[in-house]
Amino acid sequence: MPSGPPVENEFESSVNIQFFLLILLAVITGLLAAILLLPAWLPNMASSLGGESPKVYWYLSRATAFVSLTILWLSMALGIAITNKMARLWPGAPAAFAIHEYVSLLGMAFAIFHALVLLGDRYINFTLAQIFIPFATVDYRPTWVGIGQIGFYVWVIVNLSFYVRSSIGPKTWRALHYLSFGMYITGLLHGIFSGTDTPAGWAQWYYWISGGSLLFLLVYRILNTIAEKLAKRAKAKPAPQIPHAAPQPRPIAQLVTSQVKPAAQLQPGTPQAISVAQIPHAAPRPAAQPQPTQPQQG
């Protein structure tokens, strides 16, 4: 699969902050209008909304908590899939990046409603300050509620980083997005230890499946990154050069015989080289007999 440029340089934010605030205002207005109008349309809900111990606010808070955590899980899964290049297979990197941004903002809107709707509950009697100040809910599990509140503020920072990415640079933007893992862990701990649905079997299965699937994607991302780095190092490393040994001198006899062609390979009329050993030795001539001198006549 061909590798492309980094995602943060390739795709830009598709949601401006004004549009997001408008959508958030519309969602909250619609939910509040439904709470006010439904009792008139459904008389049986009047006691649940305005009685001595209204329960609908608690039910709405519990329901929107799971919706918000599920949307956060989806946003995290898409973010990991984009960095792993898995999203290039489906639905495509640009679409995955846009959905990743949209669902993160939508999940934060549900988290805001999850907290504000508790103002109508008369059992725990949260104040506006207790909802927004971490660890201020002294009457109801302040530690785990405070951890969830810190996770929400981290969520706000991560979402705002979409709109200041060009100002803070890609490295800072990426570092801020690494906070998403801690944000999801705080949200998961908040739901497990402060939610009243945790003892239910379906809730435990939900926590195990959602958390386990993200852990699998994270481990796959780490292993894939290590494998890519090792492959790049293997390609960049030069091949070891084998030193060439100096040529050994050949004996003179081998040089002579290697340069002499066999008689069958010589052309007709080519004088053949004959080694010293092949020259026949002539028989030695007998020594000349001295001729007898004749006496001179006087």
Detail the topology: elements first, then pairings.
Layout: H1 7-10, H2 17-41, H3 46-50, H4 56-83, H5 93-116, H6 128-132, H7 142-160, H8 165-168, H9 170-177, H10 179-194, H11 201-236, H12 252-259
In words, what does this structure look like?
The structure is a single chain. This protein has 298 residues and is mostly helical. Helix content is 61%, strand content 0%. It has one domain. It is built from twelve helices and no strands. The radius of gyration is 46 Å and the shape is elongated. The termini are far apart.
Mean pLDDT, rounded to whole units?
75
Between the first and last Cα atoms, what is the distance in angstroms? 128 Å
Strand element count: 0
Main pleated sheet? none
Key traits:
disordered N terminus; mainly alpha; 298 residues
How would you concisely characterize the structure shown here?
By secondary structure, this protein is mainly alpha-helical. The protein has one domain. It has twelve helices and no strands.
